[in-house]
Amino acid sequence: MDMDKKDELLLLIAMSGEIPADWIGRAVGSESYAAALLTRLKRGGLVKLRSKDGVRGYLLRSKAKQYLLAHYREDVLLYLSGAVSTNHVKSEPEKRLRLHRMSMVWIYFHRAGIRIFKSKKPELFPVLHLTPSGVPTAADGEAGGCYYGTMEWKQEMDMEIKGSRTCGVLAADRFYVVYNTMGSLMKWVPKTERNLRGRLELRFRKSREILPGGAIIMGTGMEMVQRIIASDGGMKGNLFSLDDVYESYYYVPFLAEAAIQLKLLGSEAGGNKLYRFLCGALKRVNEDRFSPEDGEDENGNLVYFCYLMELWQLKRIITLPLKRGGRIFCFTYQAEMLRLLAPSWFEVEAIRPEKVYRYLGWGQQGREE
What we know:
Distance between the termini: 17 Å
Number of strands: 13
Helix content: 25-40%
Number of helices: 13
Strand order of the largest sheet: 4-5-6-7-8
Low-confidence stretches: 128-133, 137-142
Mean pLDDT: 91
Order of helices and strands: HEHHEEHHHEEEHEHEHHEEEHEHEH
């Protein structure tokens, strides 16, 4: 979007309601510039810092809201109208942290080059029927897709999904329901999330004919993979653990280099091209999609492609009953955690994300400036 950093930051705060204080640098792409920009915005009476109950975040002042409504009305009207949570941010820590969860995803997807602003993307569920081309996809070249926060598609009738932990939906060649577990296991009610999935599938089938791709779980680091894999739901059974709500759960950490996962998930053409390239080095390719291994190399070693970090596949691999082992391929930022998780008879081999960008002909986004 062609705008200066000031307007970009103000828009992100408007959509978020409140941005975590330690995410401002990521929002504008530069920690040093963010400090100078914040000083200017605070002196100009546009933003304020709220620090309460150990939670620090930046909110808009009325002057900034008026400015955005005058210059970016289409993008902010939903978030700065009436009594919505983003327009009147409550002081309770739990409600503020909910906004922070949403904000992290807005910022990360924006920095990854995924469209988030209303003026730059189509309606998620238009009244008229649209073909899949209604959502920008990645069939030709660069990985595309759009991200929609819950306020853009939840309806008053959706009472049975009111308690869902979802932050939004990524709509590309397939659609993915996006969650943010941050640095701890999120609360999870399977019935509510199953209702959400069913409602979204019905609406996509009626309006866009886009197939479901599963769930994307965002988190603060790769260490959350170990906690999720080992989770049994906690003592009260109300924490997330792998279940059958979604066929696939993909874990994407809030690391700049991990944007490659979103690109591959959003682009069937790109994902298939990389998969075929990797399969070219195999002696045998496994066509059984219910099996965790992807094939066998020339030495008879089983090969596993784990770079998308699908959690069910990973759990099946590390709990295999036989000590046959094999080779696990992942991205560089995933390798350390996989070496900790996988039994010693597995060999973990890392792929550099920048090489995948070059091979697929994609511009590399999501990097810190």
